[in-house]
Amino acid sequence: MRKSFGSELVLRDVDLVVPEHTVTVLIGASGSGKSTLLRCINQLELIDDGLVLFDGVDLADPRHDRDQIRQRIGIVFQAFNLFPHMTVLDNITLAMRRVHKVPRAQAEATALELLGRFSLADKAPQYPDRLSGGQQQRVAIVRALAVAPKLMLFDEVTSALDPVLVNEVLAVVRDLRQDGMTMVIATHEMGFATQVADEVCFLAGGVIVERGSPDHVIHAPRDPRTQEFLRRVHEAGRL
Amino acid sequence: MSPDIASGADASSAPEAWTPSEQELDRREARRQQSRRSIAVAAISSVVVIGGIVAVVLRSSGWPVVQVTFFDPAVGRKVLPLIWDGFKLDLLLVVIATFFIALLSLSIALVRTSTAPALAPFRILATAYVDVFRGTPLILVIYLIGFGIPALSLAVVSYADVAVYGTAAIVVTYSAYVAEVIRSGILSVHPSQRAAARSLGLSPSLTMRHVVLPQGLRRVVPPLLNDFVSLLKDVALVSILGVVEGVRVAQVQADKIFNYTPYVVVSILFLMVTIPLTRFTDRVLIRSIARQNAGGTA
To answer: How large is the ipTM?
Structure first.
């Protein structure tokens, strides 16, 4: 896969395989292309060249209906991006009701069940700005889950949160892993990456420099660039 | 941000009884004194400035004449019922115009912000429309439509009431302004909102209807109310076509009795509607600014 913004080449030659029911974690410095890679997967950005294969279908092919693709790939953003003019419940039921034409009562039952699972049921009638950052992000995850996606993308979902709230969001992701959800996660939380990842990929300069199990990439990196990155993360006290 | 975390363990316990300290009582007393002084200064300054202006006007040599020609209570009482009847037509035209302006301007704004290829010719037309009617004085549009369309001698459209042409001219001009206000609202919604909606599988039109438009419109309520106040006054311009609305009635009465009091009467009627509306607009504006400053992340 190749992607540039104007003259800036962000992804030069990225080759990533995500088997079903596995968790792939993307690490790398800010600007290394983690977010761009995720946004290219669900076609929020168009790639310059390459293939995005999902269930054997090339998503980058303009002849496929992008809206249908996105219904099977959920994404959660760093800045939550909840709809501020809707209640939590309406945020979650919007896609079910308008895209999938699920009747309101049924959509709300599904939403409340999901909210209950993440102990957010009492937040259903509230507007997003009444919630803490951690609660907002968990609602955003529920919103993405509500349309029963096969693949979930997490774009630095804890970067805007304080350490206490980070944990409540990461607990949700661990939960999803237990359920066998296929996930691609961009994160700066190395401890979390070690816990949940089946494979860790270190991105730098538009390519995947090093990949493998967390034990290998995070605890015994071979490439000097990975070593340098992790040394700096360690200095910043985030390992 | 979140009270349950900020206040920690003692969130459930009742607020404890508390007697303000000496210093606090002293500070409160000082604050009361300061505010008393501010009120006194504001009062004195108001009396001096406003009183001065009134004194200058009332003591001017022409005042007695002005008082009789502009502020004659007897004339005012006599013309009020006539002018009120005309003014009711103004209000009716405003209601009708508002309805059509809302319809037309929303369509133009949606066309101008759309990217669908099928709408390409409409995008060009909408842009040309906005350019032309935002740049032409309203009074000229009223003349052109009011005298031009009857002159065409077309079936039906050329034989309507003058009030219809006047209102149409206002609708056509105001829709251009309002469409731009709505468009700016739509464009002000952060792209991440659109990305979030599209990532859930919503089509471009569903995204517009349920996510972008509701937020965009909410943001432009204050400028739209502003335009509404302008519309309330500008509707009187249809009098130049001979529509017998409030201002026209006042004009006829003033010419008949050689006294300008009818103009003052009709002005007061307009002010009775526009001043409360302007105050209301002010409050909505301040509330919306406060809200935008409060919730930043979205």
So the answer is: 0.85
